[in-house]
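Supplementary Text 2. Reproducibility record for the structural model of the 200-residue chain.

All settings were left at their defaults, and a single model was retained for analysis rather than an ensemble. We include the record here because the model underlies the residue-level annotations in Supplementary Table 4.
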Amino acid sequence: MPIEIRKAVDFIEEIFVEGDRAAARPLKIFASALVLRNPWAGRGFVEDLTPEIRVISSELGRILTARMLAIAGDGDKIEAYGKACVTGLNGEIEHGSALIHTLRFGNHYREAVEAKSYLAFTNSRGPANCPIVVPLMHKNDSGIRSHYLTVQLSIPDAPNQDEVIVALGGATGGRPHHRIGDRYQDLRDLGQSLDNPAGI
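Retained model, structure tokens:
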């Protein structure tokens, strides 16, 4: 089954001032999204989603990763990353999830930016122009809170009821004036081991 991509949308935000104070360097937050026909639309309940995942997911990851690198300049400039999907109202959340929650999709981006962390994510369902929310975290360390960021965008005419939006997000740094510490300082303050944060 070929991918039926209707449109691609890129979103870029550059932050120069935060909290009435100039950023030491501008922070670029960005995303790239693809609007495609839901490959399971109109087929009722499909028990096995694997065939479409194997055909479609890798190509979606490849296309979106190339667009993200074009926005950033190269993979080294991307410090925080994440992914998201939104399924149109006639589809299941599982449909969007199937396309992005596979290494066939995510490894394109992960390898391009030389990341170690898992990709933060959202998966939801909604009408045209609903929020597409892409959570971000540091690409190499999920405990660094400075890079807990969110990219939010919407597409006025998507998703249609039989469509899915898949997206990747990124940022060139952390919040301009981050000052809430990180997970590791919390563990030290609580007297818990960095190797065993649950205390088990």
